[in-house]
Amino acid sequence: MPITYTSGEQIEVYRFSIPVTVGVPLLALLLQGFLPIRFPLFAYLDLPLLVTIFFAMARRNPVSGLFTGAAIGLVQDMLGHHPIGLYGIAKTVVGYGASSLGAKLDVENAGARFLVTMGFYLIHAAVYFTVARGMVNLTLDWSWPRGILAGLANAIVGVALYFVLDKFKQRT
Amino acid sequence: MESFLGRYRNLTILVGVLFLQVLGLAVQVKRSGDAENTRLIRVWAVRAITPFERALVWGQNGTSDLWHNYFFLRGVRAENRRLNKEIEEMRLQEVRMKEDAAQAQRLQSLLAFKEQFIVKPLAAQVIGSSGSDLSRSVYIDKGSDEGVAQDMAVITAGGIVGKVLHAYPSTSLVLMINDQSSGVGAMLEKSRLQGVVRGTPNGELVMERVMSDEQVSPGETVLSSGGDQIFPKGLPLGTVSKVSPGREMFLNIHVKPAADLSRIEEVLVVTEKQERAPVAESGGRVRAADILAQRLPSVPEKPAVVAGPSAPAANVPGGAAEPGSTAGVKPPPNAAVKPLTGTATSVDVLKKVVQKPAPGNPGTNNASSSSSESSAALSSTAKASSNPATKPAAETVPKASPEPAASASRPAAPPKSSNSPSNPKPAATEDSPH
């Protein structure tokens, strides 16, 4: 499961149809709101984050990645009760980072995807908590065991989800 | 400059987008009226998403009903028999509890208790959630069109779920009690210790602000105290699961929620609650002593002789007014008997009622002995109170002077007020008139 360094010419850039570009994030947001009320453990997953990482890594365009992250994050904020912008900022950073990483590294294999997803989950949580506590003054507490477990769960589900979403990729 | 922006174009855009969002956050924080400022944006998002969530819930419930009600009926007959048996047992229990409830209501009305009654609950179904373990909130399918408003309590048959945070036209966002930003005024059922129940990052409940020198044992029930003006007093919050030393001389009391917060499907929104004094349901005037007499064979049904103005009814404030008896005149509210704090049991309440002397009747009479008998008999059947200060007073007969009586009928919560060695007056209440 090595993360191989590849040249720009070797990396393929993908695009997606408009229904997939709009529909998949919306479906992720919908399922994220619905599934935890039937399956409580599902609340540890962050499907919108996984979708953000997937689109960012596949497109390999930082601008596209950060806007995708910002849009998904802001909609997720609107459905919660915290101030709007917390998820937006965190997912903007993740979108930018994932697409920048995708432009430089080959993140097509399962091992690389696992590590990248785990890492970005923790970055996402770190940004969210920093902004929430430092700027909005929310009384949120960080729990390392919970964070690590949630990161692992997201990474496992993410690897499976990416292989499903790979079917919608279109070569440029 | 242009070449710089061209070279770092991606980074510039990132900084720009982040700056805009930080600016938006700052505006929300500064105005602090987040609910109003961002309401329209949230309404749009909720309106776009919740119809699909409703459809998903409807589809899932329909499929589940079809399966469970038409196909998967194994064991239904046996379950039906068991349930019928349970109904019979519960009917018997109900009769007994109705008696107790009626008695409690009569006694509370005697003391001019004020209680919060849930007048109008509204059933609602959970259709979605915020979808994050950092924000524990759910959406219900009832909104302001159905009368739901902000800060209304949301409960289930099991216990408290949360409160309405935002009410949209057809849906509402409910902040659950295990969210990190929520807080509920709570008290322990037995010891009546008060604190605040909050959520933790793991979605558990912790009761805070209970001093570390207090005795709290696992298994004790935690109820809402009503102090937050949102949840009516006495609703179950959960049970104490673990007690450990916390920060700053406080205990860290872990509470297992009474309602299963991870699997909520239907809830009740308390759309209307009323504060009123409970009204005794029975028709005629019933004295507390009569109620006791019916229950305790050792106590005569009625005092044999009513000696002049000092009728036995005098011992019951405002309730046992015999016609023409001056002792039965209802005293001004809260004149001598302070309202009892907490949800004292009817027996506790009765103890305090019996101790209360008639206003303007400092002398003792024959009836007081019957009261003392009933009080003594009662104390033998009463549950052991957590507050030792109330015990000696319960087994004694009231002294004539209204001042000690008032001290005897103080709330049971602060023990120092009734048995402090520095205060000689309460000791006088324990003197026997004989």
Write the layout of secondary structure elements.
The complex is a heterodimer of chains A (172) and B (434).
Chain A: E1 14-15, H1 18-38, H2 47-59, H3 62-79, H4 86-104, H5 110-134, H6 144-165, E2 170-171
Antiparallel strand pairs in A: 1-2
Helix pairs in contact in A: 1-2, 1-3, 2-3, 2-4, 2-6, 3-4, 4-5, 5-6
Chain B: H1 2-7, H2 9-31, H3 34-37, H4 39-71, H5 76-110, E1 115-129, E2 137-140, E3 153-155, E4 160-167, E5 172-176, E6 183-188, E7 194-199, E8 205-208, E9 221-224, E10 236-245, E11 251-257, E12 266-276, H6 288-295, H7 346-355, H8 366-381, H9 390-394, H10 402-408, H11 416-419, H12 425-428
Antiparallel strand pairs in B: 1-2, 1-12, 2-5, 3-4, 3-12, 4-5, 6-7, 6-9, 7-8, 8-11, 9-10, 10-11
Descriptors:
heterodimer, A: 172 residues, mainly alpha, Arp2/3 complex 21 kDa subunit ARPC3, two-stranded antiparallel sheet, 6 helices, globular, disordered N terminus, B: 434 residues, alpha+beta, Thrombin, subunit H, 6-stranded antiparallel β-barrel, 12 strands, 36% helix, disordered C terminus
